[in-house]
Amino acid sequence: MPLPLNPAFAATFSPPVPEARRWLSEIPLPPDLPLMNLSQAAPVDPPPAALRQAMAKALEDDPGIHLYGPVLGHPALRERLAARTQALYGGSCNANQIALTSGCNQAFCAAVATLAASGDQVIVPTPWYFNHAMWLSMSGIEAVPLPTDSSLLPDIETCAALITKRTKAIALVTPNNPGGVEYPAALLSAFADLASRHGIALIVDETYRDFHTQDGPPHTLFANPDWDQHFIHLYSFSKAYRLTGHRVGAIAAAPARLAEIEKFLDTVTICVSGPGQMAALWGLENLQDWLAQERREILRRREAVTTGIRSLRGWDLLGCGAYFAYVRHPFDAASPDVAKRLLAEAGVLMLPGTMFRPETDRRGDQELRIAFANADLPQIATLTDRLRALS
């Protein structure tokens, strides 16, 4: 007799990125075309040399880096991130409103775990970030799809109509994964007002904020002196300083909320990686110029992808920004089949839109996500040529 399985897990779809990776062993690649893996946006390069050297020194010289640390994170990093948040957004943010997590995915899981229980609802715009949908599903929480418009932006009135007594939060990602779009400051303020009126949380995941096209604050949510009553902010150091393997994320929220989140973190991981927190702190203190240069390069790549996709007959660019472009393909086939054809005939691996929408939403059949952040300008030109050859 098989062991029991939590029915919520049984009902949750498999992780999309590992599924796409399996295609690499199942589908023969074109022998004359090097693989272009545009399925995942995690940086493939290591952290900058100066940061690696600082980490190596700390590993050797600081015995405390190898020990358990405070559950909510090291005070120095909480202080520095609070100061950075306040400097970037204005308003007020203090260290006691900051907690560190093992990556931004854990930040989302921890926040939701304190907000909602099985049978509750969280509203999520579609196309959605699949790991958010997976956590809600595994927790027995209903992910309520919020359709977006032709620019992949969610509508306030549509969202308001979806709120019920079971709704506990609205979860937004900006710059968006998978769509790449940046939510305007006024739209975010409107969502914050909506959440406040209904007594629910607005969760805003800004994992990719360091690659925003706009100079200055992306929004003014922290300017509200009572921001932490309904607003929960999520951030990641993974993309900013190439620390994906070290798993350092953050939550900004009310101290009382963080006290509840501490229960989750202490039970799941006890504390965030010591070397990872050290690296994040060093990055905040020393890598702002380097990060600005990284941003400029990402913006150049964004412009190249935008120009390239718009030059292709039949392809529609729905959104492009930070690490992602989201497109509508021209083929008379569902996007999983198109993605496999692109791999087999063009040597390009990208994810089908069906991975970012509920099964009942067939718009995903015509959509693909292009994770372009690891492709340089010549590679983006090559991508455009390969797509044009198949169109």
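That was protein one. Protein two is written in the same sequence-then-structure order:
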Amino acid sequence: MRSLLRHFLQDARGNVAMMFAMFLGPLVVSVGGALDYSRTFTIGAEIQSAMDAGTLAAASLSQGEDPETIVRNYITAALSEHNGVLERLNVQVSSDLAINSREVTADAVISVPTLMLGLIGYDSLTLNRTSEANERVRNLEISLVLDISGSMSGSKITALRDAAEEFVGVMMDPDLDGLTSISVIPYNGGVRLPQAVINDLLPGTPNDTGCIELGVSDPVKMDLDANGYDWLDWQDNDQRNWRSSAFCPEDNEASLFLEETPSVVIDLIEDLDAGGNTGLDVATAWGARALDPVWRGRLGGDFPARPAAYDDPSTMKVLVVMTDGAATAQIRRAQNYYGNWYSYEIYSAAQARTNMADACDAAQAQGVHIYTIAFQVSGSTNRDLMRDCASRAVNYYAVENLDISAAFNSIAADLNNLRLAR
């Protein structure tokens, strides 16, 4: 008997079963609870992803549906495989719409039923998720620098007019009135300025638009102080009023700054004709000045508060420079020797290329988006100048045929995408 009792007390074969029985309940709850938490986490991630996509879609200014309907549709689609979950979902969607922005916020509370945690009194796990999205159309300042030199004559100037008009129509969408300003700077050997700028640089001048004489150090200087600039002179005639030369556009081709009315911009473009040299550096600098806040109130136009500050988060600044040739030497005043007129060079073509590169670098350093269009430009030096001016490699367009519209359309599409802040 003593021997049997000793063997019974020493026998441990049933301990595992008893221990397993003791821990089976907590083990089941733990494993099942982990599955419940994992399932709840998955559902929460799917809800968050659906809400983020839904609020982003609902915030789009191009959609006309009710934001709450859009958000709910996204969530419903995401939770379609989880039975009984949608019935426990509470979603609150709010939206704020302004003329150029829409903000959508969604808050979701959901009680996810548990499978195993109910054994210890937890019938559900509660999730809280929030999502917010906004889309804002930024103000847009565009400087459009257009080559109207002699090499642009014929079919090329016609193609340019058509392409530029289409570009203006796209960028000055009536639904975005008051947000977009366009400056158009037509140029041949120089740039003809509107009266507002003439008054600034030559105070007391009669109402005569014309071309200002700029020296070698002035073409890329952003702040041109009123310091008694002279009129560009050709064969002893000031280049103002109706007068023109290879170095000054016609009087109906004077630059237009900070305009918001499409018809006014298009009227100017329709009047563009070809003739003269290619003052690419002078024109590029004027395009950059039209975006520089130092010129606020000095350019005329429809936006007295523009150009906006460079660091204004609500404004995007764009410079589009187009040419079909090379930056030429600046040959300005003509001198009369015994009845014969002789012109003289202010600075060389090489200096003009350097000037243009400096103007592009200065604008790009201020965050200006620069696009360049080389319209049937020959020679690697000239193409490289335009390519290097662009703020990104993809912002350079080499047009080998007459389809310059494709370049302008691509720029317009890119700008419409960039001006949306999300």
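The longest helix spans residues 15-58. Keep this in mind for the problem set.
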